[in-house]
Amino acid sequence: MNNIPITVIVSVKNEELNLPSCLDKLVRFDQIIVVDSGSTDQTMTIALAKGAEVLQFQWNGKFPKKRNWALQNAIIKHEWVLFLDADEFVTEAFVDEISIKTKDPNFNGFTIQFENYFMGKKLCYGYGFKKSALFKKSKGAYEKIDEDLWSHLDMEVHEHPIIEGQVGVIKSKIIHKDFKDLEHYIAKHNAYSTWEAKRYLQLKEAKNSHLSLNQKIKYGLLNTGLLPAVYFVGAYFLKLGFLDGKEGFYLARFKSHYFFQIQTKVNSLKK
């Protein structure tokens, strides 16, 4: 039954491989909105065929980006909003849990956790992944970053939601499994590393203090040049990534290289 009073917003662009699995698992929610950025594949056709509402978003290079734009412009029927990417698949246990916990008036948002897959394999070790992507629309929005002159990403990727009041944790995990190939993963993180390098320099100049503990640690290590090595040692050895076999090694190396890209791009941009 489509009776859970939560609006799910799925942000997409050319997601014909991932979107069917994502939408198929959302049938218990009362409202599903797909926000597209001019897809050229079958993404729109799939979304409409699955019964989702579809909005087109064209970024003008200024605030707001896609998710904040949806909060401001979509006709959202419910107070609670869950933001998903097309490669994030909810489970029955997750849906059961949030259907209960969102009724608790003491919470205005929840942090959700992910079961990560890489190169088709479920990873049990390494660093976990979580984000606060479930919150009341009247109590939260994604942080505004002054990036009009340098950003090329039309969606909030590293921006964190700012949520008023208490934020809880959902114990049941969402599956994070991208059906696109490794080339897509590498290209995506190349784009992300450019954004992060420019963001790092912006923060350094502005001395912005509105950072999470993880961000402060990351940028502090980036400043010393040790972040790539520290990440690899932490993910592969301390967090037992080696127990995930070659996929665990590959992911630790790719993520370590991602931070090396940021570090290198920071030095290049300084010049």
Break the fold down into its secondary structure elements and pairings.
Blueprint: E1 4-12, H1 19-24, E2 29-36, H2 43-49, E3 53-56, H3 66-73, E4 80-85, E5 88-89, H4 92-101, E6 109-118, E7 121-122, E8 130-136, E9 140-142, E10 161-163, E11 167-169, E12 174-176, H5 182-206, H6 213-224, H7 227-238, H8 245-270
Parallel strand pairs: 1-2, 1-4, 2-3, 6-11, 6-12
Antiparallel strand pairs: 4-8, 5-12, 6-7, 6-8, 9-10
Helix pairs in contact: 5-8, 7-8
Task: Give a brief description.
The protein is 39% helix and 22% strand.
Overview of this protein structure:
The protein is 39% helix and 22% strand. It has 271 residues and is an alpha/beta fold. It folds into 2 domains: 173 residues, Spore Coat Polysaccharide Biosynthesis Protein SpsA, Chain A (Alpha-Beta Complex); 89 residues, no CATH class.
Q: Any descriptors?
A:
271 residues, alpha/beta, Spore Coat Polysaccharide Biosynthesis Protein SpsA, Chain A, 2 domains, ten-stranded mixed sheet, 39% helix
Rg value = 19 Å
Run of helices and strands: EHEHEHEEHEEEEEEEHHHH
CATH superfamily of the largest domain: Spore Coat Polysaccharide Biosynthesis Protein SpsA, Chain A
Structural class by secondary-structure content: alpha/beta
Give the termini separation: 58 Å
Q: How many E-type strands?
A: 12
The name of the CATH topology of the largest domain is Spore Coat Polysaccharide Biosynthesis Protein SpsA, Chain A
